[in-house]
Structure formats: structure tokens, C-alpha cells
Design goal:
single chain; mainly beta; 8-stranded antiparallel β-barrel; 2 helices; 55% strand; globular; disordered N terminus
């Protein structure tokens, strides 16, 4: 991700990342064991009879929320159930007052034939999530089930697939949990480094990666197997980020107070958009 931020700002907040990385001796390779955590529940479900988005806030199956610290959602799962259905994975962020903001989704709906068991769908690129984000689904009209017994699901009023950035009210639909699960991956950085996960949305797809930073906010950024010197600087409510390497170059900002954001990437491909997550 790359944002056309003011060069004077960068000159004030730090030296060039490539020089800083060399000076502190960081390796340009993300080291450290990864950890995968499952959230949600993919199980046999009841009816899902019209277009709606839905999420679960409490369930006898466990949490549907991303753990504190966030991570990368690398895959999601659903059970085909007795009816078969068409659905799309969604990631929602609490916005207060019973409202949630859509911050992530799978690239396209999938259709599952009835009685074919649990299906797993990799997310490539993965979706970066913040702690407290909640997984959900959108279910197409005429499909058979998206809910399973246990817990309390909150469903949106009927409507088409929402857009990234939409903030919508959810209404209580007690006694059910969603038929959706996801895998959250964390711990991609080596000793002494903290992992920060970021996603940007260009309007047609995601641009996600992992920042491995030391206490001064200097380290490396990894995206789709490419790695570059990088840094994250906090000034007031604004997180500024920049990666600058031979095959990966991007920068941008996220205002943590109001959600305003932007990024621009020039390598490996040109892309602009909004930041949906930066932990």
C-alpha cells in the first residue's frame, strides 16, 4: 500500500527505512513461528430464505470475533447443509449502537451443493483483521440455510451485497448461530518484533500484508511473498506507514479517530484505495 503523503512529514518522523533497517541489523525475512486460531462454527444449518448479511455476537459454539491483537484471515469455512446455498464471507467491525461496518469480504459468492459437508475456501490475499472484528456471511435469495442452532445471530434487513465501508444496523434474531468459521493467522515476526496487519481495498480487491516492527516502528513489510524495509509512525491519531524496496513500494495513512485513510502503491503494481485495517 502506498499513500501520496507529504515528503516533509516523512523527513520529520524518521530516516529512510532502508538505512534504518540496515543500521539495526534486521533481516529482510519474516522469521518466527506462526499460529492459527479458529473462530466461528461451520455446522448444519436452518433456513436462509432471502438476501441478507448476518453475524453472530454470542454462541454456544464459541466466539465469532477476531482475538485481541488481530491477524490475517487466511481461509473461511461453511457447511453445505441439507439445502445447499450461495453465500459470501464478510468481516464486520462494531461501530456502536447495534451498527457494524463492512471491512472485508471474499472476492465472490460461492455455491455449495446440498449434503457435501464442510467446505474450506482460502483467501488470497488474506484479509487483515483487527481484534474484535466479527465474521459473518451474506446469503443469496432462494438459498437453503445460513444458521445453525445455538447462540444469538444478528441479521441485517434484506438487501444486496453491501459495499466495503458501508455501516449498517443489525437486528436481533435470537436462538441461532451462523454457519461460518474462519482461520486467523498470527505470529509471523521474529523475536523482539511486533506484527502489525494491514489491508487496503482498491474497489476490486485487497492489498494485505504484515509489518514486523521494532519498538521504534522500524522493520520490514511483507506482501504476497515480497519483502521491503518499512516503518509505521504514529503522530497523534494518525498512523503513517511506508515500505520502500526494489519490488515493493507503498505508503499511506490511517486516522484511528475517524477512520479516514488512503494508500498508494507503485510496486509490484499500481494501486490506490482506502485502508480497511492497520493493527
Amino acid at each position: 500500500m502506498r499513500q501520496s503523503v507529504k515528503r516533509r512529514m516523512w523527513s520529520r518522523v524518521g530516516v529512510v527505512a532502508a538505512v534504518a533497517v540496515g543500521a539495526i541489523g534486521l533481516s529482510l525475512a519474516p522469521a518466527g513461528a506462526t499460529s492459527a486460531t479458529g473462530i466461528g462454527h461451520a455446522g448444519v444449518d436452518a433456513a436462509c430464505l432471502y438476501n441478507f448479511s448476518a453475524l453472530t455476537t454470542a454462541s454456544s459454539y464459541g466466539t465469532y470475533a477476531v482475538p485481541a491483537g488481530g491477524g490475517l484471515i487466511t481461509s473461511w469455512q461453511a457447511d453445505s447443509a441439507h439445502f445447499g446455498y450461495t453465500l459470501q464471507f464478510e468481516l464486520w467491525r462494531p461501530a456502536g449502537g447495534g451498527q457494524y461496518t463492512l471491512v472485508g469480504r471474499s472476492s465472490a459468492p460461492v455455491t455449495e451443493a446440498a449434503n457435501t459437508g464442510v467446505h474450506t475456501y482460502p483467501l488470497s490475499p488474506p484479509i487483515a483483521a483487527q481484534g474484535g472484528d466479527v465474521i459473518g456471511i451474506w446469503c443469496q435469495a432462494g438459498s437453503g440455510g445460513g444458521l445453525s442452532d445455538g447462540g444469538g445471530a444478528y441479521q441485517l434487513s434484506p438487501g444486496p451485497v453491501p459495499n466495503i465501508g458501508d455501516t449498517l444496523p443489525f437486528y436481533g434474531y435470537g436462538g441461532y448461530s451462523l454457519n461460518v468459521a474462519a482461520t486467523v493467522t498470527t505470529g509471523q515476526c521474529g523475536p523482539g518484533l511486533t506484527a502489525h496487519y494491514s489491508s487496503g481495498f482498491t474497489g476490486s480487491g485487497y492489498d494485505s500484508g504484515v509489518w514486523c516492527m521494532n519498538a521504534q516502528g522500524i522493520g520490514t513489510y511483507t506482501q504476497d511473498g515480497r519483502i521491503a524495509p518499512g516503518r509505521i509512525i504514529k503522530v497523534g491519531n494518525i498512523l503513517w506507514f511506508q515500505a520502500d524496496g526494489n519490488n515493493l513500494r507503498n505508503s499511506g495513512y490511517l486516522n484511528t479517530a475517524n477512520g479516514a485513510s488512503s494508500f498508494v502503491q507503485t510496486k509490484p503494481v499500481a494501486a490506490t484505495g482506502k485502508v480497511t485495517s492497520l493493527t
